[in-house]
Amino acid sequence: MPNRTSPIDLQLIAKQVMQERGFNPDFPSGVYRQLADLHDHPPRLAAGNDVRDLRSMLWSSIDNDSSRDLDQIEFAETVPGGNTKVRIAIADVDAFVPKGTPIDQHAARETATVYAGVRNFPMLPEELSTGETSLLEGKDKDKDKYKDQDKNDNKDKDGDTNNDRLAVVVEFTVDPEGHVVDGLAYRALVRNRAQLQYNSLGAWLEGAGPAPEKIATSSDLQMQLRLQSAIAQKLKTRRFESGALSLQTEEPVPLLDGQADASFQPRNLATELIEDFMIAANGVVARMLENVSSLRRVVRQPRRWDRIVGLAAEYGEQLPATPDSKALNDFLLKRKAADPDHFPELSLAVVKLIGPGEYVVERPGEPAPGHFGLAVHDYTHSTAPNRRFADIVSQRLIKAVLSGAPNPYSDAELSEIAANCTVKGNAARKVEREMAKRLAAVALQKRIGTIFDAIVTGVTPRGTFVRALQAHVEGLLAQGDKGLDVGDRLRVKLIRIDVQQGFIDFAKV
Asked: What is the pLDDT at residue 250?
């Protein structure tokens, strides 16, 4: 045990945890040489040939309050026949990071940005992911926020410098019933007009808060965002009718202010807007790539379906003996209506029992298993290339299809990438969970002996794990774990804290 008076360096611990989980967060020297070359010879940001000029559209982004690695911006419009058209512009990372370069090789090894609470470990150098390849809002003409952007020959005719960005645009049409009736992709030059945040935008959309300043001063932006939200709700309704699971999980971010509670990114109309648009866009890309070998993001049918059936039986409901996402969602919707306060607990149990997703290779004529949680067969990852390597791969495949070029990846390469992305994705979740426990341990140090309501979240050879519901933290059930299974509810007492190791131990009351 460390000396209790010794300071604990959580940032150093975070790096050590990353390394223990197989990551190498330090960029090799070749990355910095490539960055220097990019600084001297940046890609030319100009429309023409196969790059459309869409800078005049009222694009906007929606993300967390502190996010700078913006992957996508959105625009929607009504079209004849009662349909609507959605465009998702995705940062063209490949234009800055060609396949096989040092930055690409590092991203292929790490596979994703890891958010460790006290610090982020970016997959790409932040000069790119939060700078040149981030779809940040353009310059305000009255301010000098972007003084040096003219290095990219990126100016309007009036001399104003803006954040023009290369993007891959995924475009699709939505009918009045929420069906995606077509889809395509192409390259474009775009400009983010309004960088918005989930919390403030969601409150405004729901009538629970004032319009953020950028929205309040633009009636066009107000109409644009209300249209986007209406389309997203149609998409969501159609997904649920098809059997997609209506889950409400809460992932805590413990506060370092001596309190035991945690902060959340609450679900609202803004988070749902982005979620439903990205699901639709990823489906369009998957179908676009169906004639070439490509990556798919799948969630297989639950191995522990019998336990899900047992949970439903505890509420007096009967599920089929074999996995059925539509039947499961009908049960979830009924429980959400009957007991909304405790629905997140049931959702958490179901998520744990379904298990994590994985990446697989889909070859032409050989359909992948599909995504059980989304109730779709065609799904990939393509909308977050600043944060996920699989999305960069999908971007390169899109470009190859558009240009008629050969697949830039062999089947063997794709299989290796899929396996590594799956392994590192699981490792990233473990890093984030371990650091969340350390942060929670700091917050809970003065609450030894406190009793909490809890739910069992895991039963493994290493022990039984529970989540304390009032404190929103997970820990080991060190005493009284016999006979418990995922989803069981109980009361627990906090009996031990170790910030250095990230141990939070409970005893069954």
From this structure: 56
Alpha helices per DSSP H over 143-289: 198-205, 213-216, 219-241, 269-288
471: nearest Cα among 458, 455, 487: 455
* CA 261 to chain CA mean position, Å: 23
Contact status, residue 466 vs residue 474, Cβ threshold 8 Å: yes
108-137 pLDDT, tens digit each: 999 999 999 889 999 999 999 999 999 999
Cα(91)–Cα(114) distance, integer angstroms: 19
pLDDT the model gives residue 162:
67
- Looking at residue 367, its pLDDT comes to 77
- Provide the pLDDT confidence category of residue 245 given band limits of 50, 70 and 90: confident
Backbone angles phi, psi at 361, to 5 degrees: -95, 130
Rg from Cα positions in the chain: 24
- Confidence band, pLDDT 50/70/90 cuts, at residue 3: very low
pLDDT computed for residue 265 by the predictor: 55
Angle of the 269-288 helix axis to the 219-241 helix axis, nearest 10: 70
3-state helix, strand, coil split of the chain in percent (to 5) is 40, 25, 40
Chain segment 150-187, per-residue pLDDT in tens: 334 444 433 334 689 999 999 999 999 999 999 999 99
Beta-strand ranges (E) seen in 299-379 are 358-362
- Report the alpha-carbon distance of residue 186 to residue 456 in Å, rounded: 47
Please choose, from the candidates 140, 277, 132, 124, the residue with its C-alpha nearest in 3D space to the C-alpha of residue 195.
140
* Rounded Cα gap, residues 306 and 33, in angstroms: 54
Report which of 371, 357, 362 is spatially closest to residue 242, judged by C-alpha positions: 371
Contact yes or no for 437/474 (Cβ under 8 A): yes
* Token pair recorded at residue 345: 């607990």
Contact 232, 270 (CB under 8 A): no
Q: Is 395 helix (H, G, I), strand (E, B) or coil?
A: helix
Rounded to the nearest 10 degrees, what angle do helices 411-444 and 389-403 cross at?
150
316: alpha, beta or left? (left if phi > 0; alpha if psi -120 to 50): left
Give the integer Cα–Cα distance in Å for 502 and 496. 11
Burial of 176 (0-12, 13-18, 19+ CB in 10 A): exposed
Q: Tens digits of per-residue pLDDT, 210-223?
A: 999 999 999 999 99
| Residue ranges per structural domain of the chain | 10-299+356-447
